[in-house]
Amino acid sequence: MKQVKQSAVLLAALTGVYSGYADNNTLGTTNSVALTTSLTNTFLQISQGTNTVLLPTTGTNVVVQIVQVPPPKPPPAPIPTYPWVSSIAAGFAFTRGNSDTTLFTAKFGTQKKKETNEYIIGADGAYGDNNGTESQDTIHGMAQYNHLFSPTLYGFANADALHDGIQDLKYRLSLSPGAGYYFVKTKVTTLAGEVGPGVVTENRGNEDNTYASLRLSEKFERKLSPSARLWQNAELIPQINQLNNYILNAEVGVETSLTKKVSLQVVFDENYVNQPAAGREKNDVKLVSGIAYKF
């Protein structure tokens, strides 16, 4: 019966001899077609929704197909990116007159933090001269990889290398794997602790030495404002079978932005060696201010 009705509508649309016939035709959805003239009318095909069409006109009409176009699909979600965040800093000071001193420092740092992996690389150096005698001669580099098992628990692998001519240290290489934990981890404040075994190999006072060690470390950072931050970190590296032979490194710094890319840094560093080379002091301390550029 439905096919007969559809044929009648089509026949009426093509010949114009049928008047006032209405048909409910389901084409996947519900549609309504009304022909109200005895002349030649339009034949309509309607799909994708419930529609009502009324043809009150006279004369010869065309064949019309009405199709509701489905809405476009939303664009795919952007793929997150994790760029390297880097900075270089330099400081310079000199005096002339009763004292003749020169001090130059440079520092580079870069890091990438992904959802479950973190990469941290740094290098710094200092050279100083006081009345013709070297007062600073250091080159330092470090690298660390963190793998997060949860938002707060992670495993790490750390490598650190140092040359200090004033300490009569040709080189010291420290390697340490271990575990770390974020005790505080917010957008404003982070506080983490790390512990793990390690090995240290060095040439100090023209003597080579390699020993097993333990590495204890803590790292703190606080955003004081959108343009200023404070950080502090420290690490203790004792020799496992001779605990009175240990190294303590500490740093405290503050940074404030001058522009979007340029900032001012003031950093206090201390390197303490409980058993230094003969004729050398146990600790080296420096307070440096400099300009940093971020990229």
Q: How would you sum up this structure, described in words?
A:
It is a single chain. With 295 residues, this protein is mostly beta strands. The chain has 2 domains: 2-67, no CATH class; 85-294, monomeric porin ompg (Porin, Beta Barrel). 5% of the residues lie in helices and 66% in strands. The chain is built from 1 helix and 17 strands. It has one helix at 2-15; strands at 21-26, 30-35, 44-47, 51-55, 64-67, 85-95, 101-113, 117-130, 133-148, 153-164, 169-185, 189-204, 207-225, 228-239, 242-257, 262-273, 283-294. A 12-stranded antiparallel β-barrel has the order 6-7-8-9-10-11-12-13-14-15-16-17. Strands 1-2-4 form a 3-stranded mixed β-sheet, covered by helices on one side. Strand 7 (101-113) and strand 8 (117-130) form a beta hairpin. The longest helix has 14 residues, at 2-15. The model is unreliable at 1-39 (pLDDT under 50).
